[in-house]
Specification:
alpha/beta, seven-stranded mixed sheet, 7 helices, 40% helix, binds glycinamide ribonucleotide
Length: 209
């Protein structure tokens, strides 16, 4: 299975969903590290209980580059091939993102391209949207703007609060993220995917006469 490092800042329920999905028979990924910028992030404890290596490195007092370098070293030491952000609330430095381009995924609580950034649930409610949801996307230097790989829709009720809605979005995220990660890390072994990329490449090449 593909080795993934999961970065968290909070309760880590998406990390838990990934972890338990990775334990199912035939899962195409395994978690080799759970790393956090928050020393007492709830998810670290769950990872420890499950025997997963953890790494905590508070960002305070470090430049973004230095902090990212420490997180990156921990991921490399653990043998990670992919980095999966799950409620990781720090923007990554451009250098880090470039070095891992195509190998970092994020889950964001909105139907991207709508509502990048924070307070997505409150903004969807305030706009009178009928639905919000979650998106799994590739991470690029520009915040919440990389290619969207998968989305789940969640209905908004007229009496919804941001907190209540956020809790339902998380339920959807827990289904979406393991599946999207599994699909993504498996693509390198999928002949149809490879063929499609070859065709894309051929189309992108200038015609020669
Ligand atoms: C999730 O809802 C995730 O989409 C969101 O934080 C929550 C983390 O929950 N991520 C972002 O807002 C990223 N900008 P969890 O710690 O329980 O997985």
């Amino acid at each position: 299975p593909a080795k993934i490092a999961v970065f968290i800042s909070g309760t880590g329920t998406n990390m838990a969903a990934l972890l338990y999905a990775s334990r199912l028979e035939g899962a195409p990924f395994e978690i080799v590290l759970v790393a956090s910028n928050v020393a007492d992030a709830g998810g670290l404890e769950l990872a420890r209980i499950e025997g997963i290596a953890t790494f905590a490195h508070p960002h305070k007092g470090h430049s973004r580059e230095d902090h990212d370098a420490a997180m990156e070293q921990a991921a490399k030491d653990a043998g990670a091939q992919f980095i999966v952000l799950a409620g990781y609330m720090r923007i990554l430095s451009e250098g880090f993102v470039r070095r891992w381009e195509g190998r970092i995924l994020n889950i964001h609580p909105s139907l991207l391209p709508k509502y990048k950034g924070l307070d997505t649930h409150a903004r969807a409610i305030a706009a009178g949207d009928s639905h919000c949801g979650a998106s799994v996307h590739l991470v690029t230097p520009e915040l919440d703007s990389g290619e969207v790989l998968a989305q789940a829709k969640v209905a908004i009720a007229s009496e919804d609060t941001p907190e209540g809605l956020a809790a339902r979005v998380k339920l959807a995220e827990h289904q979406l993220y393991p599946r999207a990660v599994a699909e993504y890390v498996s693509r390198g072994n999928d002949p149809e995917y490879l063929l499609a990329r070859v065709r894309e490449l051929a189309l992108a090449l200038p015609e020669t006469h």
